[in-house]
């Protein structure tokens, strides 16, 4: 029976002395160290080559930007007030929620649909009826910010009377009559210069004459959002659409990732969330000047006014120390974008730099003072929080850009007063 070779431990190599006076063990260890150094050198050479090539192939020139990490204390003390509730299922990416006078909810979905959610007679959403107001497909050719999604992407909604105004990341601004479901295209992406790249959210003046909406970035669409985040550029805009005259006006530009929108209580300014800098900013409607900014503990998204005339700012993507390092190192961001595919890069950055499970709603007043906050810190009820809506009975609807449901939080559980 033939004998099989055995892998002997290193100690068995030390018995034999070679001609040069060294043992086999010493020769083996030198060879192993040499190979390790060689492959380390090749690995570093490959990494440096990729970084240099990526720097010059990058789709953008990155600039230095600071990401603030706020201490969660005082009115920002973490809690679990949003961690319990129910879900309205089978709704992919319901990024924004609004409610009509009959208690029906409206939301836009990642598959392009705008839907109405009708609760049961007792107000429960457990067996709610979901009705399509649009199918998400565009029959008439329209200019689009991207064709990658293959459908519309309604991201911001507001109700005024019987009209549901919708900002769509792909096609612009339109309205739907919630009674007869008639559709009106108001602003196409080519109606302004530079053209709209990433229309995101909106609000309507109290008299119903003006629609204020944001364009996140003038370089990148929703399908390329990570390039906008990593570039550090501030090229977002706030625009005003006059419903009567159909005129369009740029209120201000150079916003850092213009996202959520809310007309202020005094009607003289508009509050915009700048998600690239984790802050919200008051902007004078007439002059476009920045009045004040308030730093947020997360990447802020949707803004809404609540019953006590304060505002809710919803968001997730809480930055960590790696985010602070990454955004303080423009060369690294630029190089990574040059050789890592966008979708892979987005996963890497969001997983390593932010916690999308950490959901926060911050309440602030019109002077920018933080009153208190509510958390779902581990994503027990929802994740990727984008919008929080106070319903007529005090419940809170939690919208998300990536979840497949709307979260509903009961005020009896909250005890927020």
Automatic annotation (TrEMBL):
Annotated ranges, domain Strictosidine synthase conserved region: 200-280
One function term, GO molecular function aspect: hydrolase activity
Highest taxon of source: Eukaryota
Transmembrane segments: 39-57
GO cellular component: endomembrane system
Alphabetical UniProt keywords: Glycoprotein, Membrane, Phosphoprotein, Transmembrane, Transmembrane helix
A matching Pfam family: SSL_N
Family membership noted in the UniProt record: Belongs to the strictosidine synthase family.
Protein name: Adipocyte plasma membrane-associated protein
Provenance organism: Phallusia mammillata
Organism phylogeny: Eukaryota, Metazoa, Chordata, Tunicata, Ascidiacea
Gene: C20orf3-003
